[in-house]
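Support request from a user on the community tier.

User writes: "When I paste my structure tokens into the form, the page sometimes reloads and wipes my input. The last time it worked, I copied everything first. Here is what I submitted, just in case something in the input itself triggers the reload:"
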């Protein structure tokens, strides 16, 4: 789908959304680009397109999609904790580690965050470095800044 941050590739089937590739990720992985009309998509994928459009228009602050997340139990725990970070807010990697009951595992949390299969829906862009620095982001720091600014979040560069 076209978005203000570029083309997003949404993956899944008739039961669930399984992945969202940020602009540049799919091309770097050698994926075939296929533009499809949303009316041709399975319901979860069409819903993902509609909800992402609402998010980028400033009309949605939470997502309600069926997700199938392939990862380790720890990764899935971290990914689900991301959904608890309120729109427009940020947490540090250390705070996210505490949220999953592993306060000393901030590096492992960062690695799990990097592997998030459905960015934006599970808002890994809301995780920043301790002290409020922007930290990293798979889609690049400009994209992270754009998403945080869209939500009215604050950070330091």
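"...and here is what came back when it finally went through:"
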């Amino acid at each position: 789908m076209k978005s203000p941050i570029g083309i997003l590739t949404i993956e899944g089937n008739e039961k669930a959304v399984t992945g969202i590739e940020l602009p540049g990720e799919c091309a770097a992985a050698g994926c075939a680009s296929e533009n499809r009309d949303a009316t041709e998509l399975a319901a979860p994928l069409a819903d993902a397109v509609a909800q992402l459009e609402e998010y980028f228009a400033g009309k949605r602050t939470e997502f309600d999609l069926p997700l199938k997340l392939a990862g380790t139990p720890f990764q899935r725990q971290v990914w689900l904790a991301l959904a608890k970070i309120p729109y427009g807010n940020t947490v540090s990697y250390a705070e996210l580690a505490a949220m999953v009951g592993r306060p000393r595992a901030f590096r492992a949390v960062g690695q799990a965050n990097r592997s998030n299969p459905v960015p934006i829906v599970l808002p890994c862009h809301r995780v920043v470095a301790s002290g409020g620095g922007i930290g990293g982001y798979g889609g690049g720091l400009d994209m992270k800044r754009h998403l945080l600014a869209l939500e009215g979040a604050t950070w330091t560069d």
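Agent notes: The reload is a front-end session timeout and is unrelated to the input. Strands lie at 2-3, 6-7, 9-12, 17-21, 91-92, 127-128. The radius of gyration is 15 Å. Escalated to web team.
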